[in-house]
Specification:
The structure is a single chain. This protein has 5 helices and no strands. The termini are far apart. The protein has 108 residues and is mainly α. The chain has 2 domains: 56 residues, no CATH class; 41 residues.
Length: 108
Amino acid sequence: MERRRDPDAEPATALAGKAAAFLPWYLHWLYPLDLRLLRVFRLWRLLMLVRYSPALQTLGRVVADEYRALLGGLLVILILLLFASSGMYLIERHMQPNKFGSIPQAAW
């Protein structure tokens, strides 16, 4: 006799992802450990909403299709930040050495 798969049943990986999303909260009550790193798995629940939201699916497709343009824009922004922080460092380093002691401090 052939077993039929229920089309509404979730695969085991989806169930494991859901368990990883809420288990750190329960583990904290059982074992008082620092589980802040495991809180990242809570983001998994938000990412699972993409399946049910056409707008988020469209956003994902746009980001996937235009990732080169997005990376190019990010590169331009980082270059502008480098030039602006270098200029601020050169102009302000003598007046405010505690705030503009280096270029990374000026960028921050």
